[in-house]
Amino acid sequence: MKHYLYKQFYRNKAYLICLILLFLAGLSSLYTGKKFLDKNEDIINKSARYQKESLEKNIAAHSDNLGLLLYYVKFNLVNKTPKLSALNIGLRDLKPSIQGVTIRNLEEQKNNSDFFNPANAAVGNFDFTFVLVFLFPLVIIAFCFNLISEDQEKGTWKLLSVQSTNLLKLTDMKILIRCIVIIALYFLLLIIAALFVKIPVDMPFIIFIISGLLYILFWFVLCRWIISFQKSSASNALTLIIFWIGMNFITPMTGNMIIQKIYPVNEGMKAQIEQREGYHNKWDEAKAPTMQKFYQIYPQFSKYKVDENISSSYVWYYAMQHLGDVESHESSEQYHTKMQSRNDAAVYLGYLFPTIHTQLVHSQLAKTGMENQLQYAEGLRTFHEKQRLFFYPYIFSQQNADVIDWSKQTVKSFSDAEKVNLLQVIIPYFIIITLLTILSQQKFGKLC
Amino acid sequence: MAFSNLKLIVRKTRQDLFKEKRNLLIAITVILFCFLSIAIGFTKYSENFSDIKEYRKEIRENWEYRPDKHPHRMAHYGYLVFRIGHPLSIFDTGLDDYLGNVIFLEAHKQNTANLSEAGSSGILVRFGTFSSAFILQAIVPIIIIFLGFGLVVQERENATLKILNVQGASARDILWGKILGLWQFSLLFLLPVVPVVFLAASLSESTTAADILMRLALILPAYMIYYFFFSTLTVMISANSRNTSASLISLIGCWLILVIFLPKGIQFASQNLNPTPSRIAFETQVEKDVLKVGDSHNPNDPHFKHIKDSLLARYHVKTTDELPINYSGLVMKEGEKISSKIYESHLEKLQIQYKKQQRLGEISGFINPVMAIKNLSMAAAGTDYYAYQNFQKQSEEYRYKLAQNMNELQIENISNSQPPPGEKPATVSNDKWKQFPDFKYEFTTLKESIWQQITTLSAVLFWLLLCVTMVELSAKKLKLI
Prior knowledge:
The structure holds two protein chains of two kinds. By secondary structure, chain A is mainly α. Chain A has 17 helices and three strands. The radius of gyration of chain A is 29 Å and the shape is elongated. In chain B, strands 1-2-3 form a three-stranded antiparallel beta sheet. Helices cover about 70% and strands about 0% of the residues of chain B. In chain B, helix 7 (about 170-190) packs antiparallel against helix 9, helix 9 (about 210-240) runs parallel beside helix 18 and helix 11 crosses helix 13.
């Protein structure tokens, strides 16, 4: 019997075509990911040279004026891109994986976006997660939608029910064969990915695989439930496609729109205004209050006094710059909180919809999601502060550029240490799979 | 009586579709979703618009009430310009989510537009943006398919097709009748949406009603042609299929290819065919080229030394301090000119790459009508790439004008000698700030947008012609049994 079912499966040319198409889509998604990773690595590798060149050039021009030199020099911080990000590009195409900042105020620089063609960004990336979330279900639907109805429409169902003692077992066997084939294809693609992109088999990758696996299982269980109603093939196809559209388009899109509406992020713009006013107003104010505020934040610099009548001083200049950041801090924080809230809302939505959940989990594992962006923004702030505090004493005591060991000022990198909770990943899948299994079991129990 | 036969079939098809309660339910749901997206879009747009209006006012007031100061400080104080989408973004968000909303304009430096909606949202945004345009472009076609996949093949299965033919309806009448009937029903999804969009967009008060009306006058027929294409596709495949489920499966396949695969595939190809540099590489290159031409900060730079010598000769003085005009202002003016030119030439190179990517998308409208309608709809709604480019261009022009205006003020009004320590530095009266006009962002006119998208427009018309020809040609080959 099993042997016959296998034969029935692989003799179906349409199935084979579906599998080949899916395989090709998977391969091109891996190619996209590899391309992205290569470009990213290239940018980062070159940036070391860029920074060195820029340093040399500026040191040559302003070696006697450290304050001016540091006005120009940018220090780069890399947001480490794990290999896994080739499988889920996430937000990394919109947000640069390396950012250069001068020691002037941060607020003005930190939102600088990378160049990208908005038309391409709007279409979205053809990465592996896209193939998994959008295309795998389609093939699963194509494999399963007529498992019972086809026999019923051809009139062989009656025949089967006479010959076989357990029709449910037979149907499950058919589903199992299809499931094994799809999972085999999934693993084949992952093995190719691991070899081609050289993804290390570590914890994030394993969780990534498990999450994808559960997602595939979810669709099989969903199909099993739909066909248990024993409607016609056309009706099954219609229902399943509606599920697919609903979960991949309507829900996430509506969700996104409502989330954007509930959490407007105009604080980002407000921070820009406040930062600019905060800094520039100081030029027209007396120097003493500005310095007072600065000394309060950094008492260690209170020995560098600024004379009220002096026309310019780097101590005063960098104090003004920093106060721009200080005065926009609140709005900037609010902006970050809003982004966090937007992401949290999406995570909650994901608990109900495996499509969203898979996307989110994968981007979290690949460090390409919003969590990573927020962490990196925080890392950039720390890095900026460290650079400032390192250079301030030299600038303030009017040192020459040659007292600093510039060879240490290389490109630094940030890696976010956030771990993903395995339980949080699998429980939503587990609940929905169990639920659907129970529902279809009930249906089959009545009808078979 | 061929004409009345056609009319009869059209009416019958349409009425059958209307009679089915399920179909009406689907239509109402879809329309409600459209209304929902318009309502959310409208409130979001008006809140955003009023916020931005306030920010713009604040920026202007801050600018005007800056105290007297050195013009170069003003040039660095700069200007923040905010982008607001066209009100029709309520209907078609297009690229809106991915566009930066604020640019900081200052001397010597071209900043990018930052803080896009997508950049401030999580991964969810990558699923796409929900808008009426998305529903009308992607969801309605699949509904047309579900409504019409059986139109011909089912009649053949029931053997009523032959009967129809015997009663005098030619194959051409049958095909046209089914197509037009289905098409007329599909307009049910489109027609109620248009007036609501008009109303919502007019209420936003950011452009004239005439502008909106004209744009909608382009959008409406374009979508009508689009649905005509899908009605034709559905009926033709239905006519050429063995049975209903084969018809349905091939139609779903077509939908997937047209709506999901091709747009992604084309984007994938265009990105790989026309690669673009990263920001860091771009900026390094610009910096290098600027240094090659002349470094305005280096007093011994040959380019600037030449200017200095010719100035000294012209005014018959020995040092720059004796010049009747402000020398460093002049140097900066020249520096601004050089760096802007270099930046622009690099930017142009980058934009040529983007344009090539864009062109491929437009040309693909001839392969895929979904791309054609997408591009046309975006262009008509003022949310396409060209509209954005226009914003960037306008703000760069304004930035250049601002920097140069401040340099001129410095050249005319600031003395060359440094004030003695303890004295207030030289300044310019703040009346001058008020005289510098505010930034006024003008939406790209419809005419301009269409001109840019002429390929797309012809692609839409091409599909109309192709559909008509295909039906006429295959009418002869229709299998009746």
